[in-house]
Amino acid sequence: MSSADDTKLDLSDVFGVGEAVKGGEELQAQAADDVKQREELLKEREAEIARKEKELQKVLKVQLAEKEAAIKEARQEGQKEAIEHARKEQEAKKAIDSEKSDDKTKKWAEDILAKSEEQKEKLTAGQKDHELLLMYEQLRDVLYFKLAPIVGEKATKTMLARSVDKVIAKFPDIFKNVNFDDKGNLMDGGELSAKKVLENKDKLDISNGYDRLIQALKMLLEFRLLAVQKGLGQGVVKGILVSMSERLGELEKGHHQENTDILKKMLPRV
Predict the structure, then answer these.
(1) 68-99 burial, b for 16+ CB within 10 Å, e for fewer?
(2) Which letter, b or e, does each residue of 145-177 get, where b requires 16 or more Cβ atoms within 10 Å of its Cβ?
(3) Torsions phi, psi for 81 (to 5 deg)
(4) What is the SS3 assignment for 74?
(5) Total domain count, the chain
(6) Rounded to a whole number, what is the distance in angstroms from the first to the last CA of the chain?
(7) What does the pLDDT look like over 11-32, one tens digit per residue?
(8) How far apart are CA 106 and CA 97, in angstroms?
């Protein structure tokens, strides 16, 4: 019979424990290398996004300035219309008071004065709504320039354009043909033609048109943010909402307070 030393079994050999330990160590080392590689790739990706975002911020600044210039120009046009309306009103008053005015002239003057207040209100409302749309479009700009560095400009434009198509189907009375420019060209980045939006709105009943406009704009923004949430997560949405809120804070200076309040209410809470 063998001695105790002769019969001692190396259990590590029997169960392959030695090889298992060796293999486990190799797997752990490989896993650590994989994690390190992923971390390096993530850092490179984050650096690329930051670089692209910085580059596009310059373009965004120019684009927002253009929108502000458009608001200023529209305001000036509105002032010209108001001055012209005041001039006609004065002429009408003089015609009424003048003994030289014939019946036809007096009838013209009476019509001008009868519609005067309504015309003033229409001019003021039209100006305010135009500003609202140009301010709303600045939120689209913010969204575009936050997403483009992450998913690319083409994918961002596609999402923004498709969201307009969805809302056109829901609000054809407000959004019909609003994604075409003045030359009839389709705008591929989800932009809205303020002129066409207002033309559609003005065809509706006065009491209903404005409410429909706000509902359509709110739904469009919701569609876009939901698309971002589904594709990139709530964290990206929160970052976009912070940037939008910051932009609205800047727009409070020199713009209709009512408009900034309306746009703020459209934003979900961060």
Answers:
(1) beebeebeeebeeeeeebeebbeebeebeeee
(2) bbbbbbbeeeebbebbbebbeebbeebeebbee
(3) -65, -40
(4) helix
(5) 1
(6) 81
(7) 444 444 444 445 556 666 666 6
(8) 9
3-state secondary structure of 68: helix
- d(CA 145, CA 139) in angstroms, rounded, equals 10
Q: Please name the residue that has the structure tokens 């483009």.
A: 148
- 107 domain residue, yes or no: no
Q: How far is CA 161 from CA 55, 87, 186, in A?
A: 23, 44, 10
The residue behind tokens 């006065």 is 206
Comparing CA positions, the residue from 219, 178, 184, 221 lying closest to residue 200 is: 178
Residue range(s) defining the domain that contains residue 208: 19-82+121-266
Domain annotation covers residue 94: no
Report the C-alpha gap between 261 and 68 in whole angstroms.
Answer: 18
**Rounded CA separation 49/42 (Å):** 10
The torsion defined by the Cα of 150, 152, 156 and 157, in degrees rounded to 10, comes to 160
Residue in the block written with tokens 């300035």: 65
Tokens of 223: 């569609």
* Count of other CB atoms within 10 angstroms of residue 189: 16
* Cβ–Cβ under 8 Å, residues 127 and 81: no
Kindly state the tokens that stand for 18: 């030695």
**Residue 103 covered by a domain:** no
The Cα–Cα gap between 212 and 106 comes to 39
Residue 116: inside a domain? no
184-215 residue pLDDT tens: 889 888 999 999 999 999 898 877 888 999 99
